[in-house]
Amino acid sequence: MLIVPPLFDEMNRARAMLVAVMRDLAAAGIASVLPDLPGCGESVQDFAAQSLNAWRAATAAAARHFGASHVLALRGGALVAPPALPGWALDPLHGDAVLRPLLRAAALAARARGEESGVAALLEQGRAQGLVLGGYRCGAALIAGLQGATMQGEGLRALALADLAAPGPAPWLRQEPAPAPALAAALAARVAQDLGA
């Protein structure tokens, strides 16, 4: 199973939970892999050079390389999951929902510096020349690609947090990275159940 993490800082906050999901899947006899997107984590590529299409090509290549039969994507990761694979998308987001909080934070930071840059102006600037969002230097292609982007393919089954009935807040909603063992166990159990493992 190919696991596609959330995008931007949500990726960092969810990593411990995803590792727990992988352990729980392994206990159920399901092999999984969690590759870094180009420009993220241990990748040597420049984040500023990335685009939505580059990430989509990378996840498709990873799926082929590892022989993945299914995909599990979280949040914005559903935007770049290989469309040819069946699987699950936990709490999937569209591209505008990924961009909106990042642009709002950038607008607040600009105001704090005495600049009058609203969300719409920052979006146009980002689409034209790139922009630093959430500490990430995003190229124009990534921002333009995220705007209006939706989940790829028809093989992904959307799962809401309520479907898993796991207690506690999701890790991507917390300020600091933290494990979420109950959510990880519930997610792995749902995947294993759907696969008949």
Description:
The chain has one domain (2-94, 150-195): 3-Layer(aba) Sandwich (Rossmann fold), CATH 3.40.50. The strands form 2 sheets. The chain has a 4-stranded parallel sheet. β4 (131-133) and β5 (136-138) form a beta hairpin. α1 (9-27) packs across α7 and α4 (119-129) packs across α5 (140-146). The radius of gyration is 17 Å and the shape is globular. It is an alpha/beta fold. It is built from 7 helices and 6 strands, in the order βααββααββαβαα. Helix content is 45%, strand content 11%.
In short, what is this structure?
The chain is of the alpha/beta class and 197 residues long. It has helices at 9-27, 52-66, 95-112, 119-129, 140-146, 161-164, 181-195, and strands at 2-4, 71-74, 87-90, 131-133, 136-138, 156-159. It is globular and about 55 Å long.
Low-confidence region ranges: none
Overall shape: it is globular
State the helix count.
7
Strand content: 5-15%
Largest sheet: 4 strands, parallel
Highest CATH level, the class: Alpha Beta
Radius of gyration, in Å, reads: 17 Å
End-to-end Cα distance: 13 Å
InterPro entries: AB_hydrolase_fold
